[in-house]
Amino acid sequence: MVKNKLVLSAMAVLATLSLAACGNKKSSASSSSAEAGASVKLLDNYNNPAKANAAANNGTLKIAEANSSPFQGITDPALASNAEDSDVFAPGGEGVLFNQDKNYKIINGGLANLSLNRKNNTATVTVRPNAKWSNGMKVTARDVEYPYEVIGNKATTSQQFSADFNDIKGMAAYHAGKAKTISGFTYPKGQSGNVVVIHFNHLTPSMKFNGNSFMWGYVEPYEYIKNVPIAKLAASKQIRKDPIFTGPYKLNKVVEGESTTWVPNPDLYGKQPQIKHISINVVSPNNIDKAIQSKKYDYVSGGLQGTDYKQLKSLKNYHIVGSPALNYDYFGFNLGHFDTKTGENVMDPKAKMANKNLRKAMLYALNLDQVTKKFGYGMSWRANTLLPPVFTNYYNAQEKGYPLNIKKANQLLDQAGFKKKGQYRTLPNGKPLKINFGAMTGTSVQMAEYQDFLQQWHKIGLDVQFAGGKPMEMNSFYAALQAPSQNKIDVWSGAWSVSSEPTPTQIYGKEATFNMGHFVSAENTKLLNEMNGNKAWNNSYRTKVFKQWQTYMNQQAAVGPESFGYAWSPVNQRVKGYSVSPADNNFWSNLALTSKNIQ
């Protein structure tokens, strides 16, 4: 049930997890917990015993990006909003700052090191002295600070801002347009130096992990893009046509929406990559199985589903590698709008989907256990909360979520006054109720899933139809949902690639532009804040709050959990060094080839 996902770039995407379509995500993981609903167990690496050789490495590693739409082509993590862009530009490293251990805790040794000082409420970022961009420019302290300006600027097209960034001194004033700079950044060695000190109102326990929502995990090439207005940055040639990177590879060529090719970056500070050429091509989900069976690609970066596993699991010369995904599918409901003047989401009590009983009834009407079993083939299972179970400490396994219960769904609608009038129910005031369902174009299997959803909703007397009469192309789908105000889509099926640190402020916070359903409540804000309050340095307390939040969100049914699953890929046996362990900080440099041709 994997769909095209929106990606939270603040998670500090690392190439190590390009397989998961979004990279570096998670806090404390346990495969036993994460795979509780899975009927298949996978290894997170392919231990190829064969030796790599220079002739083979002089060839091309061929990667498929399974996607039904062209990628947008935004190379800047601060401006990108979907996982597909992250995938196709992953060999460039995306300017990731910090290395991490197996639990995504920040460790020394990356592009920069991090030091937290709770007494002074500061975070010191020290860039390694030999760090360079792929055009030879030095990575500077200003490069660490500038993405905060891009994200927080009033004119930005970035979707990454959330209220958590306001914990940085001066960010609130900058974000409101009352200051030209962010006062909380200081430079002990000057802006061209390699040290930045970030001054916070308070530090949080989440800051120990990559992907936290209080600090940005990437650098931005300030000198290269400083003359481009932030409002026009996403469309600039510096981002679209001639981007520069800090990772193992530099971009050789991009065919808009279709493919990227890469060659080693000679200015890389660390371990040089072994493979001399990489190509990443978008392949339709309808053609991906045949492409792998025909040995056109070494592995697939994101987008595979359970039906693909059925077709590819027994394929000779390929090994299935995967890990519990740091993403989930969900149902969203349109409950209001985003006020561009105040920078806050606003709930509309008169919104079509404002009635909680209506939303709960729609979720109870779905037979997600059957759907995931029929189409998932062990790769996906019904979700019970809005937090993937890979977050072992925080996942609430006691929550039931929304298992099929048609009787309860009908009772909820009856109690709320949605009465049957002929085939369908009406609004409590007697007027017709037509609900527009937003879905993305995809495979025949995804279409079958959507039809099942519609069928189930019709069973409880709800007139639910595709928004616009049919599933929408991915970019059009998200363009509609990300508009500050929209009435085209009332309920939708989407997917999140979530951060390696599980605080969900960026998705469900009051000021989050990714909060596309515009759900806001005092209790939600309170729980989100408590996840990183002073008491939360006690992990038992923090765990309690996370579990309370999951229970609360299920009670509100503003967003409904749909499915969890694996991120996986078939990996050709000529590939050596392939691992999706979060502790593999040199994914691209560790890859090698043992033969010239795909076997």
TrEMBL record:
Residues 1-20 form the signal peptide. InterPro entries: Peptide/Ni-bd, SBP_5, SBP_5_dom. It comes from the Bacteria. Transmembrane segments: none annotated. Keywords: Signal, Transport. Residues 118-509 form the Solute-binding protein family domain. One of its GO terms (molecular function) is peptide transmembrane transporter activity. PROSITE patterns: PROKAR_LIPOPROTEIN. GO terms for biological process: peptide transport. Gene3D superfamilies: Dipeptide-binding Protein, Domain 3 (3.10.105.10), Periplasmic binding protein-like II (3.40.190.10). CDD domains: PBP2_Lactococcal_OppA_like. One of its GO terms (cellular component) is ATP-binding cassette (ABC) transporter complex. It holds the Pfam family SBP_bac_5. Belongs to the bacterial solute-binding protein 5 family. This is Oligopeptide ABC transporter substrate-binding protein.
